[in-house]
Write a structure and sequence with these properties.
2 helices, mainly alpha
Amino acid sequence: MDPGAAEGVGGVAESDAERRRRRAQFLRDLAEARELRDRVQPRRAKTARLRHAMRMRTFRW
């Protein structure tokens, strides 16, 4: 069993805050990794940007 599941409302709020904190850290790390990859492989980064722009232009809102 999950020990945090039996804590009640306080435990749920704390685990939710912890999940959001971990998610924010993950997104920061992901952005940092993307920046590093873009610096290391500028040609691939450029084609990825162009591809993304094309996808956004053809996306139907």
